[in-house]
Amino acid sequence: MVKTTKIKSKVSKLGKKTLGINKEQKINKRFVISFLVVLVLVLVLVNIWSFYRERSLWEKKVFDIKVYVGDTLGFDVNAELLVFGIVPRGAVGKRFIEFKNDSNIRKKIDMSVYGEVAPWVWVSDNHFYLDPDQYRKITVSLKPSQDAEKREYHGKLVILIK
After folding, report:
1. Residue 115, Cβ density class (10 Å: 0-12 exposed, 13-18 middle, ≥19 buried)
2. Is residue 148 within a helix (H) or strand (E), and if so which, with residue range?
3. What is the rounded CA–CA span in Å between residue 97 and residue 109?
4. What is the distance in angstroms between the CA of the first residue and the CA of the last residue of the chain?
5. pLDDT tens for residues 113-122?
6. Do residues 92 and 144 touch, judged by C-beta distance below 8 A?
7. Pick from 114, 120, 113: nearest CA to 67
8. Which residues, listed in sequence order, are joined to residue 140 by a DSSP beta bridge?
9. Cα(105)–Cα(107) distance, rounded to whole angstroms?
10. What local confidence, expressed as pLDDT, does residue 79 receive?
11. Which residues contact 159 (CB under 8 A, 6 or more apart)?
């Protein structure tokens, strides 16, 4: 019986050692997983911050767009808004925007149109650079669809300058 006891005690000691290693491995595994999760979260937050920081460096100008779809052609010479006046269905109204870079730094220009007029509006040039003292005249065109109702429509032209 003495031999049996020794064998049992050796097995139980071996089992304890194996269990101890498993506990350490579990703790190390949890630590590594926790560390990786925190690292991924930090990287995501840094990317979000850098995206918004980059966008905040842009100068933003917003112009209201207004057009009345009607039977006759009408003009509006307002320089603060992109007012196309009265534009018949299927006809094209045009307005012009002049860009001049007065700084000594190259500037990037990006334009986007929003609102109910967005499908009807296009610009002659977009996503371009202006070198120092460079000038560029852009045409903003609007063509109401053939099925547009006779009424006033609105939108916005957003110009981002960096």
Report:
1. middle
2. none
3. 12
4. 88
5. 999 999 999 9
6. no
7. 120
8. 95, 123
9. 6
10. 63
11. 60, 61, 62, 63, 97, 109, 110, 111
Q: Which residues of 62-77 are buried (b: 16+ CB within 10 A; e: fewer)?
A: ebebbbbbbeeeeeee
What's the pTM value of the predicted model, to 2 decimals? 0.62
90 pLDDT more than 60 = yes
CA 72 to chain centre: 39
- DSSP structure string for 60-120: EEEEEEEEEEESS------SSSEEEEEEETT--EEEEEEEE--SSS-EEEEEEEEETTGGG
Per the document, the length of the chain is 162
Percent of the chain with pLDDT over 90: 48
Of 60, 62, 65, nearest to 115 by C-alpha is 65
